[in-house]
Amino acid sequence: MAITVPIFSNFFKRKYPGFVTKEIYQAPNHFPYQMALLAGPYYGDEDYYGSLLIDLSKMEEWATHHAKATWTSVTAEQEAKEYFPRWVSVFNQYVDAITFLDKSQRGFLKPYALDFVNKGWFQIYCPNCKEFFHEIKNNDHGKDRLGSTIKWIAEWQCPNGHVLHYKKHEIRIF
Length: 174
Ligand SMILES: [Zn+2]
Prior knowledge:
Blueprint: H1 5-15, E1 35-39, E2 51-55, H2 60-69, H3 75-88, E3 98-100, H4 103-109, H5 113-119, E4 122-126, E5 131-133, E6 137-138, E7 141-146, E8 149-157, E9 163-172
Parallel strand pairs: 1-3
Antiparallel strand pairs: 1-2, 2-4, 4-5, 6-8, 7-8, 8-9
Helix pairs in contact: 2-3, 3-4
The protein binds zinc ion (ZN).
Residues 126, 128-129, 158, 160, 162 line the site of zinc ion.
């Protein structure tokens, strides 16, 4: 029998109720505009100097699949994820404005920032150039493996070489 996401999440909730963070999700009561601010100084993100916008008009199919295929123990993020496909399906294409995302939406979306960049569903604002770009220079470096720990530095630059995102990563493989 295949373990589906609902089976896994029910098992997890029963077995580890303490790990399930219960916080009520307040779904947004407005329709989004096409572009949403995913990460940047506006939200206090210390790893982003640039402002990363994602294109909601491209995201309904991804969001639908993602909501079915993954599960998070943070209840508010899980509810935000399940609500998201419906929300992006009614985006307002007639007004050129930017949508702000809530904490729970950012919680499940931000780890996929590089995927959205690679798919081309983004624009990024460089505060030095004072300009939006549709491409980044990916300058990840410093990859190092020590025993079971892998480290690297993620760094994105604008086409003129200004750093827009910088983050040290460290993961442990068991
Ligand atoms: Zn720049």
